[in-house]
């Protein structure tokens, strides 16, 4: 005798809370076979604004946490994902129409990428930083610091791996992110947000918007309080206009990445949203 | 007699043999430009120095084509060891001709000879020495093994440190295997053209370095040229913004080093005499024509009066005048246009209620001059506390606690540099941590070194110049797919139909011309 | 020449310190003075050293250097004959050029004072009046390692023999051990010993021996301490320890003197001593004085060079400027 399932309401994730879109809008998310999966929230520009505000408020705490702490928090996400593996496999299986094994491989890859990035948290500065042998009586050191608020258009062709691959590197360095999930596969992103909400990630560090990237991305690209823009998943959008909008406040911009594994893990992706700060200090025995 | 009125000690101009006219330096030779030539004048006397060729679109095409040929046929194929040797040669030639270059720089730019002689030119040589050694060690630049040069670099530089900015641009570009087309600022082309002669003396292969002169439209044409792979610009945030828009949607990699409004934070336990020197050096070095100038003095309220009094006393000993006089501390403002901007903002400061004090300097009759000026009673909302003045004008604000100092320092769209003065080590490190600025000087200011990365946060631009980071700005990894990949379960495992059916499309369209000229 | 009266000095010290000059009070005060960043100080000094002095300014500077020199002999082998020779040179530095100014003073060991006084004869007097003073090193120079009684006797004897100026050394051991009160008391006591029966007083130069204090913070504190205790001059070095006078140390001491003047209105002298051998270097000191405390300090009762070989180098430069060609060592007298 089958039990009647209790479906989940998929909402936005802003400032650690799960609000509906302030616009009240939703859109229908369908499975690969066309079946109804859920009504996802369709975020508005005001939701984007709220998300940026939440992210800005989280930058100091997250960026100021010790690298060891950030590493543990990110690793904790992998732990929790592992525990909810079955849920994500089922979600991806339904949404993308792939086999259980293929969906499982995707979840495993996403978990492993969290582990990989988590391990970088307290090593990245050592690899990207420098003690500089300046010609004078100075101590001189360069360290990478978080850029601040990073807005991301997540890869559109992937439920989980692309999403994780886009946000993890920005988080490693201590940035707070506002991420627009895949329009077609938004559900895993919101499920991941539930993982984040119950892990140790401080509220506001990750903010997830679902809906139309074409509608939301311009507001993020032009928002003066956004410091960087990752267009990895914006290849289908008029991304040149987004880059031009971002130029108004000299945002750091990563252009769209084509190919099946956009946002593949690299050290460069961490470096992309850091600012190298060089500190000089005099030194003398006298 | 007054001993302090040292007799003039002008550096001899005899060391300098200038031509009346300078062409464009393309493909190893000086050629005529096709635009209308312009004059370069000495800002200290308003006398003409030389007639300078003006590059039009066709000249830009020729220069980029020469750079492309040199890149594809010679420079990118040359072993790094040999590229390094060329750069070492250039460094030595600069040292040999150091005095001549210093005189030319002071003549053309208006900066005091003691600065061009003791700061600019030695750093230029140091920059080439530093990057020369990198040319055969690119595997250690941080991009993995066998990184590639980007190709042709378009480089547009400002008038405040003409030759030094040239070195910041050309040395790393060449070390990494790129060829360059560089456009010096319209008002200060002289040393770049002397550098072209040095390039000839070094027997650098033709086309590796091309120098084209002109105004903003020349710069815009260069930056927007389809044959360019890398854009490096130093100048105003307004032009930097225009460039960022211009290159949007292209494959061009960009480094922008733009404006600033640096806070120089002085705590009440600062080494006070050195702090005064640091404040002076921070804002009056190079007449304040410094993007990283410490133009906002944030002084702890408890020592505000004392600091201002000491500053005024110190400023009264500054000597303004002939840039070629070895005793000159404050030279000429680079152009009439810049002088007007300084005056306008300074007047705005008065209009907004700040108190202006200027050092009692005798202002020469000809040329462009502005006496070192301090504004007190400045509010954070005043224009002189927010806008880059790019002149010898200091705005003094106060704070009460370290937190307030940090908040005020960061309360700007800029983020290039900052200074901290205190005897307390833990405070220095904590404040440095929280300042949103690319360069933080603690108990010093305005120090530069080729091994030390330099560049800004926020609207002060992106990318770094100097050090290993500056080299990386002219390289890309061997293949896009290598470099630091996770060794995790392979990507092929996720053979999803969705991904394969829909390869991401890359929207491209012709880049728009920038609204403003690309040079400041 | 007469310095500040002792009563005034101690009273002023108490007022400035806000308490009696004991170890604790002095420590609180001296350690409350802003620190010195060595790199910045040395850069500022180097910057002052790049001033270029030409023609008329240089001529003036060379003459002024001579008139600020304490021509010095401080050897174990000093004899009355050596001192007479030194005095002759002091009175008439360049026999070939009568326009050459005299030096400010001759500086000798205490037991040599009578010979110096005798040799100077009518030229003995205040350098402000174009005459030559006699300065005596005292207080167990150069180490300062003896009892206070002996130091005071040393001082009193030199003053009694006609010394116009006493160059004392501070007890660097006491200073470095933090016994600031002891250093203060010794300087104050020596100042007392500088008094003459007629109520006037020999001028007191306090030698910090900066080469043994090592750090600039120490130099700054020792400068304040010496001035608070009544020193009329602060002097860098004995000349027996390396490094002796340096431009950064002298700049730092001038900054203290400037600040003291701002605080009290009193002008204190500065004497770099040891290691200044070339005119070119001496000119850098003049520039440093002029740009730090002002040109008014470039007079014998506010600035001196403790030197011996410097004088001949200045004379060679003078001769070059007068004749237009370079001179040689045989055209100046060895002493």
TrEMBL record, chain A:
Keywords assigned: Oxidoreductase
UniProt-listed SUPFAM superfamilies: ALDH-like (SSF53720)
Keyword Electron transport: no
Gene3D superfamilies in UniProt: Aldehyde Dehydrogenase, Chain A, domain 1
Pfam families in UniProt: Aldedh
InterPro entries per the UniProt record, alphabetical: Ald_DH/histidinol_DH, Ald_DH_N, Aldehyde_DH_dom
Domain spans labelled Aldehyde dehydrogenase: 25-237
Keyword Oxidoreductase included in the entry's annotation: yes
Protein name stated in the entry: Aldehyde dehydrogenase family protein
Automatic annotation (TrEMBL), chain B:
Species this protein is from: Agromyces tropicus
The Aldehyde dehydrogenase domain, residue ranges: 30-476
Protein name listed in UniProt: Aldehyde dehydrogenase family protein
Biased composition (Low complexity): 485-498
This protein's UniProt keywords: Oxidoreductase
Active-site residues from the entry: 257
Keyword check for Oxidoreductase: yes
SUPFAM superfamilies, per the entry: ALDH-like (SSF53720)
UniProtKB/TrEMBL annotation, chain C:
Keywords, ordered alphabetically: Lyase, Schiff base
Lyase is among the record's keywords: yes
Pathways per UniProt: Carbohydrate degradation; 2-deoxy-D-ribose 1-phosphate degradation; D-glyceraldehyde 3-phosphate and acetaldehyde from 2-deoxy-alpha-D-ribose 1-phosphate: step 2/2
Enzyme kind, highest EC tier: lyase
Keyword Cytoplasm annotated: no
Enzyme Commission numbers on file: 4.1.2.4
The organism's place on the tree of life at top rank: Bacteria
Catalytic activity: 2-deoxy-D-ribose 5-phosphate = D-glyceraldehyde 3-phosphate + acetaldehyde
Gene3D superfamilies in alphabetical order: Aldolase class I
InterPro entries: Aldolase_TIM, DeoC, DeoC/FbaB/LacD_aldolase
Family per similarity comment: Belongs to the DeoC/FbaB aldolase family. DeoC type 2 subfamily.
Protein name: Deoxyribose-phosphate aldolase
The organism of origin for this protein: Agromyces tropicus
């Amino acid at each position: 005798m089958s039990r009647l399932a209790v479906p989940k309401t998929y909402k936005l994730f802003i400032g650690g809370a799960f609000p509906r879109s302030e616009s009240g809008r939703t859109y229908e998310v369908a499975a690969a076979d066309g079946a109804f999966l859920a009504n996802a929230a369709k975020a508005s520009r005001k939701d984007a604004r709220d998300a940026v505000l939440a992210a800005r408020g989280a930058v100091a705490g997250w960026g100021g946490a010790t690298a060891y702490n950030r590493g543990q928090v990110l690793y904790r996400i992998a732990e929790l994902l592992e525990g909810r593996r079955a849920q994500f496999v089922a979600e991806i299986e339904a949404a993308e129409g792939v086999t259980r094994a293929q969906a499982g491989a995707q979840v495993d890859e996403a978990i492993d990428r969290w582990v990989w990035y988590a391990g970088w948290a307290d090593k990245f500065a050592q690899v990207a930083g420098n003690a500089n042998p300046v010609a004078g009586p100075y101590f001189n050191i360069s360290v990478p610091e978080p850029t601040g608020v990073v807005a991301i258009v997540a890869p559109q062709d992937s439920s989980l791996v692309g999403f994780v691959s886009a946000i993890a590197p920005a988080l490693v360095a201590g940035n707070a992110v506002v991420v627009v999930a895949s329009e077609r596969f938004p559900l895993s992103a919101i499920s991941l947000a539930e993982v984040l909400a119950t892990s140790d990630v401080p509220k506001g560090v990750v903010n997830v918007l679902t809906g139309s990237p074409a509608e939301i991305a311009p507001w993020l690209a032009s928002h003066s309080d956004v410091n960087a823009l990752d267009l990895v998943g914006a290849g289908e959008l008029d991304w040149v206009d987004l880059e031009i909008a971002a130029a108004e406040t000299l945002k750091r911009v990563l252009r769209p990445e084509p190919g099946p594994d956009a946002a593949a893990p690299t050290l460069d992706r961490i470096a992309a949203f850091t600012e190298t700060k060089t500190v000089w200090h005099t030194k003398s025995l006298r | 007699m007054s001993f302090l009125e040292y007799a003039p000690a002008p550096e001899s101009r005899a060391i300098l043999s200038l031509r009346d006219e300078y062409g464009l330096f393309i493909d190893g030779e000086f050629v005529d430009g096709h635009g209308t030539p312009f004059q370069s004048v000495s800002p200290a006397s308003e006398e003409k120095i030389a007639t300078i060729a003006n590059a039009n679109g066709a000249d830009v095409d020729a220069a980029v084509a020469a750079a492309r040929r040199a890149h594809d046929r010679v420079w990118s194929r040359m072993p790094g060891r040999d590229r390094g040797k060329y750069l070492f040669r250039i460094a030595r030639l600069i040292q040999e001709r150091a005095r001549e270059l210093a005189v030319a720089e002071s003549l053309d730019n208006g900066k005091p000879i003691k600065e061009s002689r003791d700061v600019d030119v030695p750093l230029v040589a140091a920059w080439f020495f530093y990057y020369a050694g990198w040319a055969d060690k690119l595997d250690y630049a941080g991009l993995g093994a066998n990184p590639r040069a980007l190709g042709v670099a378009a480089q547009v530089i400002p008038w405040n440190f003409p030759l030094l900015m040239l070195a910041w641009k050309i040395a790393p570009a060449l070390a990494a295997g790129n060829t360059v087309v560089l456009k010096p600022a319209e008002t200060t082309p002289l040393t770049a053209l002397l550098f072209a002669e040095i390039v000839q003396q070094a027997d650098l292969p033709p086309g590796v370095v091309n120098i084209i002169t002109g105004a903003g439209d020349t710069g815009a044409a260069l930056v927007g040229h389809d044959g360019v792979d890398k854009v490096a610009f130093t100048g105003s945030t307004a032009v930097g913004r225009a460039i960022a828009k211009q290159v949007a949607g292209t494959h061009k990699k960009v480094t922008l080093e733009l404006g600033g409004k640096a806070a120089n934070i002085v705590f009440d336990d600062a080494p006070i005499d050195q702090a005064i020197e640091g404040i002076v050096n921070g804002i009056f070095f190079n007449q304040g024509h410094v993007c990283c100038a410490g133009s906002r003095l944030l002084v702890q309220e408890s020592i505000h009066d004392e600091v201002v009094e000491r500053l005024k006393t110190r400023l009264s000993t500054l000597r303004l005048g002939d840039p070629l006089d070895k005793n000159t501390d404050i030279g000429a403002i680079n152009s009439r246009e810049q002088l007007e901007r300084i005056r306008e903002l300074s007047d705005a400061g008065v209009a907004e209620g700040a108190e202006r004090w200027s050092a009692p300097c005798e202002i020469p009759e000809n040329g462009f001059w502005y006496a070192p000026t301090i504004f007190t009673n400045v509010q954070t909302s005043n224009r002189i506390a927010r806008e880059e003045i790019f002149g010898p004008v200091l705005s003094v604000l106060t704070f009460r606690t370290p937190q307030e100092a940090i908040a005020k320092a960061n309360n700007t769209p800029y983020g290039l540099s900052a200074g901290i003065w205190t005897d307390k080590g833990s405070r220095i490190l904590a404040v440095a941590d929280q300042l949103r600025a690319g360069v933080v000087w603690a108990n010093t200011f305005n120090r530069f070194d080729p091994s030390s990365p330099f560049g800004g946060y926020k609207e002060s631009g992106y990318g770094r110049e100097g050090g290993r980071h500056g080299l990386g700005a002219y390289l890309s990894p061997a293949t896009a797919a290598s470099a630091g990949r996770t060794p995790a379960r392979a990507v092929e495992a996720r053979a999803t139909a969705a991904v394969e059916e829909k390869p991401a499309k890359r929207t491209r369209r012709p880049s728009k011309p920038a609204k403003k000229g690309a040079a400041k | 020449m007469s310095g500040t009266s002792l009563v005034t000095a101690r009273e002023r010290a108490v007022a400035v310190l806000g308490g009696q000059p004991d170890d604790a009070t002095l420590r609180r005060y001296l350690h409350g003075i802003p620190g010195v960043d060595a790199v910045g100080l040395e850069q500022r000094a180097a910057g002052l050293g790049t001033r270029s002095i030409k023609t008329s300014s240089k001529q003036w500077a060379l003459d002024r250097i001579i008139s600020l020199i304490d021509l010095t002999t401080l050897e174990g082998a000093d004899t009355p004959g050596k001192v007479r020779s030194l005095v002759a040179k002091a009175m008439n530095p360049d026999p070939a050029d009568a326009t050459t100014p005299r030096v400010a003073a001759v500086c000798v060991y205490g037991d040599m004072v009578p010979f110096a006084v005798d040799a100077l004869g009518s030229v003995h007097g205040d350098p402000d009046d174009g005459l030559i003073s006699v300065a005596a090193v005292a207080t167990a120079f150069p180490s300062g390692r003896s009892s206070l009684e002996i130091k005071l006797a040393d001082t009193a004897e030199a003053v009694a023999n006609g010394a116009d100026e006493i160059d004392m050394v501070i007890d660097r051991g006491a200073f470095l051990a933090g016994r600031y009160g002891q250093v203060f008391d010794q300087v104050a006591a020596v100042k007392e010993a500088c008094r003459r029966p007629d109520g006037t007083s020999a001028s007191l130069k306090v030698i910090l021996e900066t080469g043994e204090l090592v750090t600039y913070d120490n130099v700054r504190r020792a400068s304040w301490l010496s001035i608070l205790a009544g020193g009329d001059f602060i002097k860098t070095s004995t000349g027996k320890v390396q490094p002796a006078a340096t431009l950064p140390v002298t700049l730092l001491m001038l900054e203290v003197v400037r600040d003291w003047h701002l605080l009290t209105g009193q002008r204190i002298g500065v004497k770099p001593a040891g290691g200044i051998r070339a005119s070119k270097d001496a000119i850098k000191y003049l520039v440093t004085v002029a740009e730090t405390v002002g040109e008014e300090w470039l007079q014998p009762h506010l600035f001196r060079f403790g030197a011996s070989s410097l004088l001949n180098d200045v004379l060679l430069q003078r001769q070059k400027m007068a004749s237009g060609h370079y001179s040689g060592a045989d055209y100046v007298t060895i002493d």
